[in-house]
Amino acid sequence: MRSLVRRAVWGGAGLITVITLGLAACGQATAPAPAGGTTAASSRPAPSSSATSASAATPPVPSAAGQLAAFIAAAGQADSRLRHAAALVNSDIGATSMRFTPATLTAVRALGNAPVARAIPAGLPDELLREALVVYGDLASRTAALDAVGRYGYPGQKLPIGGPDAQAVLGCLRHGAPAAGRFHADLAAVRSLAQQTPPLTLAAPDSRAAAEVALQINSIDKRNACSDECGGYAPTQLETVIWHPGTEQHSRHYEGTISGIRFQADYTAAHGWQIMIYAC
Question: Which of 138, 183, 202, 234 is the most exposed place for a label (fewest CB within 10 A)?
Fold first, then answer.
């Protein structure tokens, strides 16, 4: 059962609407007892003691869910911060102007997805990594869309809705709406696939598998916030990475291309993989 959440949807009037659709609990009337004070017998047969004990004795099937638990928790926390910031932004946008409060600007500028990125394990199967990066891309798109508030807004400054700065803010905010609408379904897909995946042997932090995770994340960030970009990009497939052979390649330094764009990756114990993609 999924809960569909559509949040941070900016319409032509520049207002953000947060819509939550869920299933309400349904009440059920209690039938009166039969005359004579007796109670009607249940139509369901009582479960046998052997069936009950067999069910209780069945151990849970081991899966990779525990290995993705930190990522799922971090993604949920990032989503909560984004929803909080979007609600503050919404309250500061009026019919004719927007004026952002210090609290709104502080919440927007405090956004960041580094904890989510750190929680993606290295060595995941391709499909599970793809699903995790889709979730990360949703968060990155929404974060970059809200960055425009901090870029154009100053505490107490009034921006007329028809002016270029307000229009730039509204345009960026619209970029985050699709990712906000699909986030919960995408996160549920990661959880479901992890539950169906056997426990994994994960890769070490200094491995090339870890370098590729950092590379994919860095590319998502750049596509959402490079130059004048402000959200709107979330991956649907893993990007193609080609590792260039060479005498200078070793276990803590790699070069190559991602989607045809040159990159360099260097590892230190203090900072992990540092990625340089030669774009924007």
Answer: 202
For residue 19, the 8-state DSSP code is E
The secondary structure of residue 2, as a DSSP letter, is -
Chain centroid offset of residue 237 CA: 15
Per-residue CA distances from 100 to 14, 90, 106 (Å): 13, 10, 10
Q: What DSSP letter does each residue of 96-111 carry, written as one string?
A: SEEE--HHHHHHHHT-
Summarised one tens digit per residue, pLDDT across range 68-107 is 999 999 999 999 999 999 999 999 999 999 999 999 999 9
What is the model's pTM? 0.78
The whole-angstrom separation of Cα 33 and Cα 170 is 61
Query: H or E stretch including 20?
Result: strand 16-21
**pLDDT per residue over 223-277, tens digit each?**
999 888 999 999 999 999 999 986 455 678 999 999 999 999 999 999 999 999 9
Give the Cα separation of 277 and 256 in Å (integer). 10
How many helices (H) and strands (E) the chain has is answered by 7, 8
Structure tokens given for 230: 């402000």
Burial label for 117, CB within 10 Å (0-12, 13-18, 19+), is buried
